Amino acid sequence: MDKDYNLLRLLIVLYKTRQTVAAARKLNVSQPTVSAMLRKLRHQFNDDLFVRNRNMLEPTPKCQQLMERVPTLVAEMEALYSDDGDWHISQMKGDITFVFPATLMAPIASKLITRLCEQAPNLTVNCEPWNTLTLSMLEQEPNYFGVGYLPLETNKNVMQKALPDDKFVLIKRKGHPIQSEALEEVLQYPLCLSIIPGYIEASKVEMLIKKYKLDKSISVRSADLALLLEIIKGSDALGVVSKRVENLLDADMVTQRLPPELKSETFRRETALFFHASNRHAGFTNWLHTELDRLMS
Q1: Nearest 5°: phi and psi at 191?
Q2: Is 164 helix (H, G, I), strand (E, B) or coil?
Q3: What is the DSSP letter of 19?
Q4: What are the tens digits of pLDDT across the range 159-202?
Q5: What is the DSSP letter of 267?
Q6: Cβ neighbours, 10 Å, residue 20
Q7: Would the pTM of this model clear 0.70, i.e. be above it?
């Protein structure tokens, strides 16, 4: 049986859109053409690939299996016909999405997007906080790029490039009554922690509290950095936040070093740039990694 490899693009689009009408619009063909192409796909793989659930198409286990490999294979075939030798950031256009943890949104994402707007005026940039759908989008969408903390469980459709470690400090209001960096004194005050969505480990601070069997509860956990800063500014609460936030603080807030017990295991966290496997040799991925490395160094 002859194989039509062009149909693999339809498989990718249908997997994303879950509707033949939406897929037809995206591929710029008619809906009957998409239906005919889907019939050929089903014949080639001897599987339904998609089953109808009301007005949506749900992928079969065979389709899910194929989608672990097909996007990368199609991207590699398309790369054979592209020449990145003359690529320049100014050529970028269309839409692209960046996903950052809340801890890095203001200090890093803002600077990166400013740089992109200057260098790629025809590009539309979307920026979102890391959430429960981020990994799924990174697995499926080549125009999604994320910065996150390690360790992070991903599949082979998502690749990563190391970035400089993030460092953490204790933050407090100016005039706070705390007298030292001693752990026993720090634990006398309410503690606020930044939630890092996607990060598979529990908070290092909480892990250490359990490790040392300390009688202490975390007062506030939030992914909203602005909320944490307001709480800390208006109370005796202390926060553990990224050191990169330091330059964003107003005159009412200051930082101090973490207690030695926390600093030894909590002070640093590895970070990485995450992207779809089809972009691993793309000029934009290299540009993005270089810029992030510079901003975070």
Answers
A1: -110, 135
A2: strand
A3: S
A4: 899 998 888 888 999 999 998 888 888 888 888 887 776 654 44
A5: S
A6: 22
A7: no
